[in-house]
Write a structure and sequence with these properties.
The protein contains 7 helices and 7 strands; from the N terminus they run E-H-E-H-H-E-E-H-E-H-E-E-H-H. It is an alpha/beta fold and 197 residues long. Strands 1, 2, 3, 4, 5, 6 and 7 form a 7-stranded mixed β-sheet that branches. It starts with a strand and ends with a helix.
Length: 197
């Protein structure tokens, strides 16, 4: 099984990236406990910013962007993590999911997560991320995870417990979902190859 983590953190190190890593580990631990082989792939959207902007104008993906699209298209499940800015997902996060071929997430399990400066931003998962992933026709896991700044390093925040629960539920969803059938209908066209003949 392939679990692809898409994170849109802007700093290094990034709490958004860390949350994605911890959710992937909780998911992989659960799947491996039931004798499933798991490969975790990570897409750092920050590293693809210029590729995404070029893609908007040309509709020709760079090799790096094509690899990121493939990581999503081949995934058994996708963990999507964004920082919350102005009560919603970041623009770069949205740009990546706008650039995906239509149907890339159809029927694919997705675990939603976000980070923010304070707990008052936690409703952005329900108000912004959930409608986006419903529109993309993903099968959204029942438990999402929001991590505020004060949650990190605090045993009382319950963050570890929430990550374990979300990972467990997501792993069960991934294991129960048939692999999406490969379809040329949604394949990214290699225009460079076409031009070469």
């Amino acid at each position: 099984m392939i679990i692809t983590v898409v994170t849109a953190g802007m700093s290094t190190p990034s709490s958004t990236h860390l949350l994605g890593e911890r959710l992937a580990k909780a998911t992989a631990d659960r799947l491996e406990a039931s004798d499933q082989a798991v490969e975790v792939r990570t897409v750092e959207v920050r590293e693809l910013a210029s590729d995404l902007v070029n893609f908007l104008g040309t509709r020709v993906p760079s090799a790096r962007l094509r690899e990121a699209f493939d990581a999503v298209a081949q995934a058994s499940g996708v963990i999507a993590v964004t920082p919350i800015w102005n009560a919603s997902y970041s623009g770069l996060f949205k740009l990546f999911f706008d650039a995906l071929e239509e149907g890339s997430l159809k029927g694919r399990p997705a675990l939603l997560a976000a980070t923010g400066g304070s707990a008052r931003h936690s409703l952005a998962i329900d108000s912004a991320l959930l409608p986006l992933f419903f529109y993309l026709k993903a099968t959204v896991a029942p438990t999402a995870v929001f991590a505020a700044t004060e949650d990190w390093g605090s045993d009382e925040s319950g963050l570890d417990r929430r990550i374990e629960r979300a990972g467990r539920e997501f792993a069960d969803l991934v294991a129960a979902t048939p692999a999406p059938e490969a379809s040329d209908e949604f394949a990214v066209v290699d225009f460079e190859q076409l031009l070469r003949g």
